[in-house]
Amino acid sequence: MWLTEPLIKSEWPSPTESPPGLKPESPKHVSAALVEAESILSLASPMALTGLLLYSRSLVSMLFLGRLGRLPLAGGALAIGFANITGYSVLSGLAMGMEPICGQAFGARRPALLGPVLHRAVLLLLAASLPIAALWASMRSLLLLSGQDDDIAAAAQSYVLASLPDLLLQSFLHPIRIYLRSQSITLPFTYCAAAAALLHLPVNYVLVSVLRLGIRGVALASVCTNLNLLFLLLLYIYSSGVHQHTGALNFTAECLGNWRSLLNLAIPSCIGVCLEWWWYEIMVLLCGLLLDPKSTVASMGILIQTTSLIYIFPSSLSFGVSTRVGNELGANRPDRARRTATVGVSCGAVLGVLAFAFAVAVRNAWARMFTADAAILALTAAVLPIVGMCELGNCPQTAGCGVLRGSARPRTGANINMWSFYGVGMPVAAGLAFWGRLDFPGLWLGMLAAQGTCVALMLVVVRRTDWKLQAERAQRLTGGTVDADTAVVVVVVANEFDEKQAADGDNADICDSFDSLKIAQLTASS
């Protein structure tokens, strides 16, 4: 006789109701892989649109900096690079530590875990912002010590000091974005980002052109835009009721404890993100040592803008893959997690081919949107095909990073980045550019070597993953304890029943109840 009620009630309203965003088993006449691809892309598409909106904001800021003159443009560009290296990369990386916990807790139908994790992440980022703010306050002195021009250093200092409130805002925005994404809530964030982006242009106009705040006005405009975004997101969370099952708006003393799991994930996540971000800044510094530093630095700036635009799409795919893998592991469905990983990396490979085709197609025209300088045009046209080849590796390896984040293995990702970019890529880049006398293309061939190594290692790691072990780890991470024998028996019986139900095409309620039983057995002692 089949059980029709779970042994332990789920925290969701109905025992037969799947968590929002987790799609049921595919019909027998539809390929499971295609259904999984649809699930991933339904998450990734709104995030890609959000990325494009954020990219448009940066273009507007650069436009207003350019209108202020060469000095504000140089100072602002230097300040943005400094802020990215020392601040935003750190906050972004630390916030990613909460991603596997939230994704797996949501899949395990333990939504009450999401609120405390969100609060801890915000506190962690606020604490990290204090030394970052102190570093930003001394930026001018550091730039002068490195030999930068005094006027440019002063302009950069003005920009970064006006950006200090943004550290506070980012400490909330990064965790909230992950909190929503782990629940497959992506469209509301896109709507809020669109509304904030629409206000970015008039805010810049008022602060820069009307109030004449100069370079500080551009920085303050970004702060105002992020403040608007945070307000809209909090309004959505409150009005939609999404906080009710998670306790996101109920700050309690619980968030002041149990830091170990978050820190164990946040620190290696931060290292992995910083290693990749810092690589590009090192590339810019190396350009200054080449035969024609002015042209190569300018060309590198154009190419970094180009790769940033392309990266929006694989990074969005990576976030979708991470969410789906985390959800499935949290629900103790290792076979579905394996399928998600395979489909996600395959989608990344398709994106890589499209990115390569784009880079080759626009190689002679792309740089003309930024400059008319013949030397810069020639350098950019020569290197863009190499950039496209880099994306052949970058897109699938970025999707693989999503698999590692969703399965709570950021340390593995950080190690892969370290050995690929600094153990292989950096020596190859320096050797080809300087000793091999390939100059600027040599640097990008080093990037190609790094991406090739990275995707190869990532594929090996994903291919050799023990998904049943990862599912057991997910139960422990979300507060449950797993009896290995019980877990295996429940999963095997549940999978056999799922197959029978898919073949019969009915008894959906019984199947969902058995899923609830499966999760209840694994988390009974928590």
What attributes does this structure have?
18 helices; 78% helix; 526 residues; globular; mainly alpha
Would you mind describing this structure in some detail?
With about 525 residues, this protein is mostly helical. It contains 18 helices and no strands. The protein has 2 domains: about 50-255, no CATH class; about 270-480, no CATH class. α2 (about 70-95) packs antiparallel against α10 (about 260-285), α4 (about 115-135) runs antiparallel to α7 (about 165-180) and α13 (about 375-405) runs parallel beside α15. The longest helix has about 40 residues, at about 295-330. The two termini are about 30 Å apart. Residues about 1-20 and about 480-525 have low confidence and may be disordered.
Low-pLDDT residue intervals, each spanning 5 or more residues: 1-18, 481-526
Quote the distance from N terminus to C terminus.
Answer: 28 Å
Helix content: over 70%
Estimate the mean pLDDT confidence.
Answer: 85
Strand content: under 5%
Order of helices and strands: HHHHHHHHHHHHHHHHHH
Count of discrete domains: 2
Number of strands: 0
- Class inferred from helices and paired strands: mainly alpha
Count of discrete alpha- or pi-helical segments spanning 4 or more residues: 18
User: Radius of gyration from the CA trace?
Assistant: 24 Å
**Largest sheet entry:** none
Overall outline: globular
